[in-house]
Amino acid sequence: xxxxxxxxxxxxxxxxxxxxxxxxxxxxxxxxxxxxxxxxxxxxxxxxxxxxxxxxxxxxxxxxxxxxxxxxxxxxxxxxxxxxxxxxxxxxxxxxxxxxxxxxxxxxxxxxxxxxxxxxxxxxxxxxxxxxxxxxxxxxxxxxxxxxxxxxxxxxxxxxxxxxxxxxxxxxxxxxxxxxxxxxxxxxxxxxxxxxxxxxxxxxxxxxxxxxxxxxxxxxxxxxxxxxxxxxxxxxxxxxxxxxxxxxxxxxxxxxxxxxxxxxxxxxxxxxxxxxxxxxxxxxxxxxxxxxxxxxxxxxxxxxxxxxxxxxxxxxxxxxxxxxxxxxxxxxxxxxxxxxxxxxxxxxxxxxxxxxxxxxxxxxxxxxxxxxxxxxxxxxxxxxxxxxxxxxxxxxxxxxxxxxxxxxxxxxxxxxxxxxxxxxxxxxxxxxxxx
Length: 435
Hints:
The chain has helices at 77-83, 85-90, 119-129, 147-166, 170-186, 188-197, 228-239, 243-257, 263-270, 275-278, 280-292, 295-298, 305-317, 323-326, 343-346, 352-365, 368-374, 379-387, 389-399, 406-428, and strands at residues 29-30, 51-58, 64-68, 71-75, 112-113. Helix content is 49%, strand content 5%. It has a domain at 302-428. The protein is globular and about 75 Å long. It is mostly helical. It contains 20 helices and five strands. Residues 62-130 form the BTB domain.
């Protein structure tokens, strides 16, 4: 089973990430209830629980205190404003110095609350604010094949992209997004391996995020698993209408999930709210994983009556795979190809040499045995072949790297990404309960 996040850890981070000569203070608790002054009604809620000073981003010479969950940060408004005046204005971080009323954020007890952001996410953003992206130590450089480090870096870049978008830091967002694109297009296998093994240990930056995951019918919710970070990346890619990032992230999580045979895990992700509408191809892939488990599992107590009916009916309708799944797919993933099959994809008559080269590489990754399997009349064989499509896409990308014409290589891979996700989207429509 993929590893879970710790559900309600509390404490402070021991990881370092800021640079410079600014002084930090030692970790100490701040009891908000000890304040004798009458609190502002709008701040009453935040004054009820004690807070802990962050050990990395609480600077003695900072100009404003910010509270995220139960962690207080003290940072420099000049640096925040340099990246986003919108952020400063939204939370009144740079008030008029001539104002008669005292502003918030002058002390720990009256820290400005930043809602809907986890302390760990904010630390990742501060890691860049206090060390510019052009500086090579802004984030730890990851060595090839260091899968856990690669996963950790992806985690950080995703936080930076999401928060910089939220706070109007456009340059930072584009910088972080480019790194995310690089990961999901060039390190899919390493990311999948890293997230399969990735655990936030007791000194993790996320231990004070205070996330509580309660089970429903004995099944943990999807956010309890680290791999849910890919779902957050999918949501982000959809919000920013970034198709390359969306397809790259979908392909990565699908490869990461391809070996999963734990029915409770599969059900927990199928239950993600609005997943079928927002990411239908991921829903379709998860449905394939459920179908692969077979009817002995479908009758188990983990599935609802609707799940069972959908699985049994899909088995009937998908044996063999209907033409509606296969038609109008530009890349030859359902047949033995020839060089001319890639003409539509490459869309240029002068690419005859490239078509021949691609056809040769394609045959190595999608051999005759694959073509037999995906068109098999045996249900389990065709389902396995469909699930393995994401791995074959990764292998084809590696095979095509030596090509001199990178333009044709990228055209083909982009179209194959679209086609694979279209097939999974079509499969999602077979999740139906026939009464």
